[in-house]
Fold:
Amino acid sequence: MEQLELLSELCTPNKSKMILLVMDGLGGLPQTADGKTELETAHKPNLDQLATESVCGLLEPVLPGITPGSGPAHLALFGYDPLKYIVGRGVLSALGVGIDLQPSDIAARLNFAGMDDQGLITDRRAGRIATEKNQELTAMLTREIKIPGIQLIMRTEKEHRAAAVFRGTGLHDGLTDTDPQITKVPAKPVTALNPQAEGTARIINEFVVQANKLLSGHHPANTILLRGIDSYRPLPAMPEKYQMRTAAIAGYPMYRGVAQLAGMTVLETENGIVPQLQTLEKYYPDFDFFFVHIKKTDSMGEDGNFAGKVAAIEEVDQYLPQLLALKSDVLAITGDHSTPAVLKSHGWHPVPVLLYSNCCRPDEVTSFGERACIRGGLGHLPASNLMALILANAQRLQKFGA
Structure:
């Protein structure tokens, strides 16, 4: 029996309140050999104090040495086996921007990007163009691209990101990305991983060709990169499996998408710790479990901005007393994965976690950081185990066996 099914059998409702605060890309690395990580560098008295009252450890998002995408990393935090429930990033982005996906649709995550005269990618994020510019370009592509038999649905996500959905008959998933994940190389063509998907690969490659022609004069966003191309398959819903009312507070569309896929009610909010805490306070009586997502820690890491990531952590710490004032029965704080500024990308490194409740067993960790948490009472465990610990500390799990 897999863990999700076991938890479903053991779960029992009560009136407890649970908060999972995810600081995206929280884990980091030192800038120098003898230095501290972003989390260790930050002045965070509230997080450090909370760590002394909690049980701490490190989470492995997927498997040791495996660099996770945001989708599987979040699904693991929600208790899903990320190696079983595999969902393309395109589906999450499309759901997050409000596209009503059909099972026959093919969805892709799209980056506007920069390309030089030799066709080499110069910037995978087009300088993080303004969302308004993205909306202008997305509208143009939707209007101008014509592919027989295909309805193209495109919507802006944020900054350089958008979602593209291909709707028609006979479309199949099993497709590779065009995003090479590095610069100074050309984008890749979409290739089919099975014979059924060959026609779909040709359609999406034609979409890229037409998009490049239309974008040629729009530097720094003069090309597109696609990844996470997939079809929509529903997941077992958290509210039914865990017998609780679940809500997501995320300002960034992709994370609203993964929450929606897991069956959570997605609450409208602006991006940023202040409006998100206001939303949490407003809806606190209405739900049992809240997923609160902070994006800025990840964005700063991807930009290689060590000081910016430190500042983002310190901002969360500043408002932590407001979160603690709600007196939730369980509070877990972690990241979905590591995004070290020195790598400017996701890393394979495990992520610090703290778990606070009235019935947790505090350990000897006195600060919230990578090196401190490695000595914590939770040890080094799969991220998919965290939901079981949250439910147990909320006293929502019955005894297993006689």
Q: What stands out?
A: The first strand starts at residue 18 and ends at 23. The domain at 92-230 is CATH 3.30.70 (Alpha-Beta Plaits).
